[in-house]
Amino acid sequence: MARTLRTGEDVLRWRRLRLKHFLSRTIQRVPFYASYADGELGNLPIVDKAILLANFERFNTMGTTLEEVRAVLDSGEERLGKLIVGQSTGTSGNRGVFVISDVERFTWLGVMLAKTLPDIPWVRHKVALALPGYNQLYASAEETRRLAIRFFDLSLGVESWRDELLAYAPDTIVAPPKVLRTLAEAGGLQPRNVFSGAEVLDPLDRAIIEAGFGERVREIYMATEGLFGVACSHGVLHLAEDVVAFEWEPSPGSSGLFTPLVTDFTRSTQIMARYRMNDLLKLSSVPCACGSPLQAVACIEGRRDDIFLLRSEGPLVMVTPDVIRNAVVDADRRIQDFRVIQMGYDLIELSLTADLAPQIGEVVAANLRRALCEAGAADIEIRLKSGITIPMDRKLRRVQRQCRPELT
Length: 408
Fold this sequence. Notes:
Blueprint: H1 8-26, H2 49-54, H3 66-74, E1 79-80, E2 83-87, E3 97-100, H4 102-116, E4 125-131, H5 136-141, E5 147-153, H6 158-168, E6 172-175, H7 177-186, E7 193-196, H8 203-213, E8 217-223, E9 226-231, E10 237-239, E11 244-250, E12 258-264, E13 275-276, E14 279-283, E15 296-303, E16 308-310, E17 317-319, H9 321-329, E18 338-344, E19 347-352, H10 358-374, E20 381-386, E21 399-401
Parallel strand pairs: 4-5, 4-6, 6-7, 7-8, 18-21, 19-20
Antiparallel strand pairs: 1-2, 2-3, 8-9, 9-10, 10-15, 11-12, 12-13, 14-15, 16-17, 18-19
């Protein structure tokens, strides 16, 4: 569908048409929205993961309960009657889960292939998926007979299957940035299509991946809640406005970052309407050279719950992940990896790679302290650590807040 949308007005017209059908017919088939009958998107309640999980059976047309879905997943299966079930790859006990129909599964597949491998009607591809988990969404792609797909389990570690990957010689790789970086640095692969997913693509990683593979990295913005964007051939991430309606909430502590509220108007089994994501995005105001009218994203800066809450002379101040990241990487061009973790309201742990001299750490800490002071934080202790471990069993978060409570 995106190919037929040539202007911004085309996108708005398509969105209005699809939302009208979604709001007047689809959404009223689930109990949670039974009392919302005026057909206005803005009058629906904003929901999040906690609300969805607490009312799971009221958000889907089959009355399927969360307990039923988790029981199927715990048994190693992915089907519950006629429904396909799945869950997020997160390691917390509060994983997101979903239920979809076969029709929705192939709709997702069509959108994904059109945005990532548009030449698939004429060119057969060998795809390597290096991901924390495999489900029916990916398996459906194999039914096209235009793809050879092989799954490489991240939980086993890259070294356990790297030789097999080299022998497979894929022309397309889909993996988190940390894995793409590891493979690019090791050498031996020559993919034509490189897709980053499951984690934020940091410019530090992008530079190393593109230098190692000699190809542009294209970001896939996808979560348990749906497919939200794919980068074009120029490497610019475009939102999937042909299948999802986006609304934007300004981020606390920032004038340039936004959290998306998503409404997927292709879904008819489990409704996802005005669902608040946990992401922080910076939208681009510059038209992309590819000519797409779909909204371009300057960058995904991190997670909403990784906004730092720090001591000040008054109330706690909020500092967004982009401020922290920029303070670190701008301090010295030799920095190629780092971790900044908020341990308390006045305590931050800063980790740099072991190959950097101690004095570089002092310079970085001073630059970070200066940035925090400019943001209004006061009397913040920064503890320096040398050495970084790359987690393969969970998402990489370079800027992370372990100090709670959550933002409201």
